[in-house]
């Protein structure tokens, strides 16, 4: 997360690479497996989605809780991904990505106990994950709406893209869980949990700042 402060601002564009762009622009008909691949790649390289998931599972110790929260997130982003594209609901990409950055800030702040400390109030964390999941889905939808996807095979391609997103999320989450589970066995986990979530908040603020600047400039 510290590295986010030093890498080129271009990476914050969170856009689509040239090969994927060329495929989407020339796509015709049902392309199930290519869309599965694109969805998985977008999730694995989607640092904002992954940062949010890191925050969500950071203090979840039971498998049942991890499953519940990830399911809430999946339900949210799957709903708005499909709804956004199929209903052609246009959302400003900069603003929606700024809200996704806000979701990272929220989770870091929540993990630090900020709500109880500052407001003597704790939001429902499950509902928060679901609601922010809805915004993450709109963020995924805006990436596809940048291209004039043909109607032929659109639903199948979207379902394939969403399946790829879930597969990418599953793979990334598995890696994150292995790392965090191993880290929890070391005293450094407790020692650095505050620093880690502070960095999580900082990364979210950087993402928000970049996207809001892009909105103002464009």
Please describe what this structure looks like.
The structure is a single chain. With 218 residues, the protein is an all-alpha fold. The chain has one domain (30-217). The protein has helices at 18-26, 32-44, 47-57, 63-86, 93-111, 114-119, 125-145, 154-183, 188-217. Helix 3 packs parallel to helix 5 (93-111) and helix 3 packs antiparallel against helix 9. The longest helix has 30 residues, at 154-183. The chain is globular, with a radius of gyration of 18 Å. Residues 2-13 have low confidence and may be disordered.
Please provide the count of β strands: 0
- What is the H/E order? HHHHHHHHH
Residue-averaged pLDDT: 89
Low-pLDDT runs of 5+ residues are 2-13
| Strand percentage | under 5%
Question: How many domains, as an integer?
Answer: 1
In one word, what is the shape?
A: globular
User: How would you characterize the largest beta sheet?
Assistant: none
| N-C termini distance | 27 Å
| Helix count from the secondary structure assignment | 9
Evaluate the radius of gyration.
18 Å
Q: Which structural class fits the helix and strand makeup?
A: mainly alpha
| Overall helicity | over 70%
């Amino acid at each position: 997360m510290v590295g986010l402060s030093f890498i080129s601002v271009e990476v914050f564009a969170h856009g689509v690479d040239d090969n994927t762009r060329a495929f989407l622009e020339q796509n015709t008909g049902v392309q199930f497996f290519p869309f599965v691949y694109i969805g998985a790649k977008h999730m694995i390289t989607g640092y904002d989605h992954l940062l949010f998931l890191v925050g969500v599972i950071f203090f979840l110790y039971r498998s049942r809780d991890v499953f519940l929260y990830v399911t809430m997130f999946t339900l949210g982003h799957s709903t708005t991904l499909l709804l956004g594209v199929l209903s052609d609901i246009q959302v400003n990409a900069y603003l929606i990505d700024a809200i996704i950055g806000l979701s990272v800030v929220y989770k870091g702040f929540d993990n630090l106990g900020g709500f109880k400390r500052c407001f003597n109030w704790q939001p429902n964390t499950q509902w928060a994950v679901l609601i922010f999941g809805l915004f993450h889905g709109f963020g995924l939808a805006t990436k596809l709406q940048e291209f004039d996807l043909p109607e032929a095979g659109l639903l199948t391609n979207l379902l394939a893209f969403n399946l790829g997103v879930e597969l990418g999320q599953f793979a990334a989450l598995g890696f994150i869980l292995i790392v965090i589970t191993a880290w929890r066995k070391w005293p450094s986990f407790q020692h650095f949990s505050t620093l880690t979530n502070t960095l999580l908040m900082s990364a979210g603020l950087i993402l928000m700042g970049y996207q809001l600047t892009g909105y103002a400039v464009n």
